[in-house]
Design a protein that fits this description.
The protein is 65% helix and 0% strand. It is mainly α and 69 residues long. The chain has a domain of 32 residues. It starts with a helix and ends with a helix.
Length: 69
């Protein structure tokens, strides 16, 4: 019967540590996150930015609410 230390030595010292991510995988994850951020920024600027919101003043709100009664 082998001791846990002997089993660890046979598998290598890296068996106990989490595996290291390869540089290609990290690069792919970073590029994916950057692409998502770019797309979200483009959507915000195209559809949700303050320049696309109609001006609302108290008079317009009053007219719409009084008209509904």
């Amino acid at each position: 019967m082998k001791t846990p230390r002997a089993q660890l030595d046979e598998c290598g010292a890296s068996a106990a540590a989490p595996p290291r991510w390869s540089a290609a995988l990290l690069r792919r994850i970073a590029l994916t996150i950057l692409a998502k951020l770019a797309l979200l920024t483009a959507l915000y600027l195209l559809f949700f930015s303050p320049s696309h919101r109609p001006p609302v003043d108290a008079g317009a709100v009053d007219r719409l609410l009084l008209h509904a009664r």
